[in-house]
């Protein structure tokens, strides 16, 4: 058992849209990522996904409008719901989702990362 | 879909050792609790449990020694591993665990809460 310091983990990488695995439990993963700019519209067929903002401001686009999350706020996106993360300035986000969840959900494209790094 | 502000949720209750459900996804729950004093030794037969410190300092006793977690740090306690949460001063903790996890794990005693509040 290891104590994980989220700030330390954040300081260990600089790339965007590339979630890192920082914990695993009960078939779920705790992932940490930095977002900047715009991601693609996608949904997860079988997985609900939680986004918790650690630092910065996260915009989640939904088909019926945007939601803006600040530090210390989270949202749970149910499976099947299309969403599009974006951030004008860099935002650090902790995600909680099943280990099976692809970062691009139903899409397989240049942004898809099949094997996430563990840090 | 609701944006959950963790600080707001924390300000809505004052009791200790009584986890509140603040989110649910994939059969898991996000729980928020305040601890102060000493809890009981217990383990969870089938559930891994994650403790993330939001504010304060959390001590987790294990049979081979204590671990102390500060704000922004988490630990995942694998199923079957005995642990004993305690806090000299009040600590606010976010927990991720399966919806099936009892707060007292393998024990059923005065501290056991069968139906957690949703806040």
Question: Mind sketching the topology for me?
Answer:
The structure is a homodimer of 119-residue chains.
Chain A: E1 4-5, H1 6-10, E2 20-25, E3 28-38, E4 49-55, E5 58-62, E6 65-69, E7 73-77, E8 84-98
Notes on the structure:
- The structure is a homodimer of 119-residue chains.
- Chain A has 119 residues and is mainly beta.
- In chain A, 4% of the residues lie in helices and 47% in strands.
- Chain A contains 1 helix and 8 strands; from the N terminus they run E-H-E-E-E-E-E-E-E.
- Chain A has one helix spanning 6-10; strands at 4-5, 20-25, 28-38, 49-55, 58-62, 65-69, 73-77, 84-98.
- The relative contact order of chain A is 0.29.
- Strand 1 of chain A pairs antiparallel with strand 7 (73-77) of chain B, so a sheet runs across the interface.
What structural class do helix, strand and pairing data of chain A support?
Answer: mainly beta
Rg of chain A over CA atoms, rounded to whole Å, is 13 Å
Number of domains of chain A: 1
Number of strands of chain A: 8
- The appropriate CATH architecture of chain A is Sandwich
What percentage of residues of chain A falls in helices of 4 or more residues? under 10%
Q: Could you list some keywords that capture this structure?
A:
8 strands, 4% helix, 7-stranded antiparallel beta sheet, homodimer, 119 residues, Jelly Rolls, mainly beta, 47% strand
In short:
Chain A is mainly β. The first copy, chain A, is built from one helix and eight strands.
